[in-house]
């Protein structure tokens, strides 16, 4: 039997997803809406971690930068919500490049700890109400509703479609990245930095680029998040969130689009669905993470033609 | 800025620093051999605090100070249970991944951390648990405006003693030599007839044992424990290990003490709400200037 290639199956599933607002009710709709947002953040983490091989454990921060950019611009300066999208992307990408520049030379594990550090400094800055703009521990309320050609995206199903379209764009971008020169350079750097440098690749510049691309895409998801909940506070962008994103990529499968999406379902959607088991779910989750890694060290759905070794 | 205030901050910083250093040793030893950040180590320390609390709290109803043997029993129980947990952790979560991709082991460590943290929540409830008072004799000394408690003195001295003991063990015994050899090159050590698996198990006994004592000190010093405090103390201890030069035992001690002093001064003179950010700022600065930590040698890249 011939297998249906992922290249056809993917877009097909995306089109099926468009029908969700007509099929699902309130709770499921909001879970799937958040799934689309988290899938975008997870894919953006994969750019840095899975594709460029940079140990980034502070990625939730860029998600937060995007969300706060949208919230501050909209509530303080009255910028229309949709206009904040490009700004959230640019600000997050800028922060990503700026922070990455001095640290990308650090060895893997040190990079991991420093990115945790940036994430915590970001969270504390938001909690300490820097510049009187971030609202302190309570965050910012009352982010507005996006509107396009006079139509307000106020209903849950409108927001779902908005998130789903952005997810579709993110998926296209990831596919293009995979086939592009930049994507190939990322892969060389990950597999053998020394060899890549010898062939004339400017390792530092490409690593900064990886951070900027990943941060920018996370910034877009941050904008969606601020709009979806119409509020932002630092709790959604802390170290634990970064750890979850990190685990999504490794558990799902590095540099594998279906793997990362599957990881998002496992690590994000399932805990949402089983909220009734609140007391036990993360306990069981911890065990599951160990079991998956022991049984499938490469992730559940790894990239093809990359079987063994590092 | 009075001198006595400064001295008081230094005393408090040294106490916390001693605890950080104890916990940091477990990180540094595991990292030295496996090149793995054992993210569950902070949770193991907290487990030590809870085991100790259970032993102490079981007896204590009123205000009477617990007997010395009961306090000793609390420490012994904490050390035994936590080392056992450390060995179990090595067998189930790390050993199967020893030759896999490094990030798989990192995620396994994160899973183990989640397992311990939430397991403790299920056993000891999500609320903050209060330690009984008067666990140690209530002696305080007033030295020119500086208050020094018996608890602080005990913590600093026993931390230093334990660190010294570990240092001597690793540097001056046959088995210690095996540990150092395995840290440098596992394959070469194996060829020299060293049982590397035994060495690794010993590291997962020693590290968690010291961590358990550190965790119990935290409980006794701050008089409370909560299931999710492991990551904060664990992260601080890990930072201490990096500051000192990870994989380096004297480095972990120095890093712990320095971090404790620095934290205490930052909280006292700058702002306690920025304390953690200042800690990370210091870490980032040190790594940019000396990427292998203060006492760190050149570390061979494990490929």
From TrEMBL, chain A:
Membrane topology: Multi-pass membrane protein
A GO CC term assigned to this protein in UniProt: plasma membrane
Keyword Ligase annotated: no
Main location: membrane
InterPro entries (UniProt xref): ABC_transp_permease (IPR001851), LivM-like (IPR043428)
GO molecular function: branched-chain amino acid transmembrane transporter activity
Keyword Secreted among record annotations: no
Location of the protein in the cell: Cell inner membrane
Alphabetically ordered keywords of this record: Cell membrane, Membrane, Transmembrane, Transmembrane helix
Pfam families reported for this sequence: BPD_transp_2
Domain of life: Bacteria
Annotated transmembrane regions: 29-49, 85-103, 159-177, 208-231, 243-270, 282-301
PANTHER family registered for this protein in UniProt: HIGH-AFFINITY BRANCHED-CHAIN AMINO ACID TRANSPORT PROTEIN BRAE, HIGH-AFFINITY BRANCHED-CHAIN AMINO ACID TRANSPORT SYSTEM PERMEASE
Protein name, per record: Branched-chain amino acid ABC transporter permease
Source species: Acidihalobacter yilgarnensis
Taxonomy of the source species: Bacteria, Pseudomonadati, Pseudomonadota, Gammaproteobacteria, Chromatiales
